Amino acid sequence: MHVTIIGTGYVGLVTGACFAELGHEVMCHDISEEKIQNLKKGIVPFYEPGLEELVEKNLSEDRLFFTTDVAEAVKFGEIILSAVGTPQGKDHEADLQYVKSVALNFAENLGENDYKVFVNKSTVPVGTADSCTQLINDYLKKNAVNAKFDVVSNPEFLREGRAIEDTFNPERIVVGVASTKAKSLMEHLYRPFIRTGRPLVFTDVKSAEVIKYAANAFLATKISFINEIANFCEVVGADVGEVSKGIGLDSRIGSKFLHAGIGYGGSCFPKDVKALIKSGEAQGSEFKILRAVDEVNEKQKTLLVNKFEDNFPQGIKGLTVAIWGLSFKPKTDDLRCAPSLEIINNLLEKGVKIKAFDPIAMPNFKKQFSNILENENFILVDTAFEALNEADAIMILTEWNEFRGVDLKEIAAKMKGKLILDGRNIYESKDVLEAGLIYESIGKSKLKR
Ligand code: NAD
Fold first, then answer.
1. Closest Cα to atom 30, ligand 1: which residue?
2. Residue 449 confidence (pLDDT) above 70
3. Fewer CB within a 10 Å sphere, N or C end of the chain?
4. What angle do CA 247, 251, 255 make, to 5 degrees?
5. Helix, coil or strand: residue 52
């Protein structure tokens, strides 16, 4: 099948490369000239395990093409998937300007007697497919183009860091579709997945749009829930790790997304929870639970700095902190809404010196946060151990595997102070204490040697 992807970011590029690997011919379009020129040479603009190899392979086997020419892209595909960003707008609602501009590009490039399917892969508020349909229809009518189309909602559920694995082995593929013609094209697109037993869930367009927000909002709710339980555990002297294990073994609850920490971040949960709250408001159907989920998450990002301050009653100004981990989660260089950013800004405002290290996200950090890099109290260093020089405390902000296996005695010997502030609960308290360190984590009462 000829498939076009418009918006070659995390979702668009992974989807395009995976569809190509499954035998479709895929043209990926983006407005960024630099991104497309690099991709034509096999250079992937962000870190995602296995993606560069997949892109190179399918480029060389002539199943994957890149272009900045939107007319060429729309003409190429029988199905046009839009995977552009839907960032947070000024009042926390989803900003749909990119989606609308792609819908218009689609309309502008439909030829006389064409039939094509416009598939929305981005996370968009309910009603967006209807407004895209309206926008495309208006254009065709105004310009007297006799073309037919359908708009389909096909939300994406991949997780950064395991995006390829998720795309090849989805737990479900949700397709919101109103016409049988579009349905059969979508079945054709996903045939390789159907053959391997992956459930293709056909539903109406609006339900598909809600499914994506409801899924993200539910997962964010689980995280904020366990974080509130963690805060309670700290007060009463219980251990949230034990509680998570104890409740997660109940199959009605499940053990995933029950890790207490410094709050969720990334390009999806924060903006999607806020956008759903906003949609509810607009429709007169308030999301009380989600307001609390968001509030708990905001508070969670302040915990580590509060704990740091509690350990230094004389004040933290002028102290040095080693920060381990910048990305919002391991196996990605994505820094969008990473809790590390708020923590770093908070520390810098309080006059703390920071030496930060991340195994993958530092190049991305350098590109995006020149304002932080200009602060004389902030430096990025080349290794996790280098960050420990003169450090009064370490803050673990991302649970990269390489931080898990470190020799804690070596850490104790290298740092100036003794305090580990573990925002991801990656160590066993007893191991930290045996190394002669002070351990503050999330959801366990304070343990000192
Ligand atoms: P992204 O910012 O990485 O990629 C978006 C791309 O679209 C960029 O490369 C940008 O240059 C391009 N673009 C913008 N306007 C364009 C236009 N008019 N024409 C062509 N290209 C254009 O975003 P992403 O993380 O891939 O997310 C895309 C959508 O998928 C969002 O709605 C997001 O919420 C959703 N989503 C993301 C993930 C994820 O893990 N990143 C997972 C599931 C769903």
1. 122
2. no
3. C
4. 50
5. helix
